Amino acid sequence: MVTVIDGRNAVLGRLGSVVAERIMNGEEIVVVNSEAIVVTGERDVIFADYKARVDRGDTTKRKGPFYPRRADLLFKRSVRGMIPWTTTSGRDAFRRLHVFVGTPKQFEEVDKEKVDFAMKKVTGKYTTLGAISKFLGSKVR
Questions:
Q1: What is the pTM of this model?
Q2: CATH superfamily for domain 2-136
């Protein structure tokens, strides 16, 4: 059975830790609306941090680490850092995670779950994964 989670207004780290724990327990997770996931902190600092990560991997010389620009792949990469990626159990768990920008047609009618732990009210400075991916030059919006 597939669990569909709506990422709208969820905090990135909190949602990622819940998703990582659940995929490691064998659950298949689909996250929709990844462009609306919230990253807390100063906007300029967040943009500089993600820009440094993208620039670290040199794509012209086939040297890594390669860091994504799209909002859905940014979320997957953050979850990847929360699981034991180098083990077979971690790789199998990562394959059980599917993330989408927006809501695909096959998941429009499905009941979407909101993770209460990740829905912390953000009162300070924040930005979204969609804004970060737009800043990084992603063509998917």
A1: 0.92
A2: Ribosomal protein L13 (3.90.1180.10)
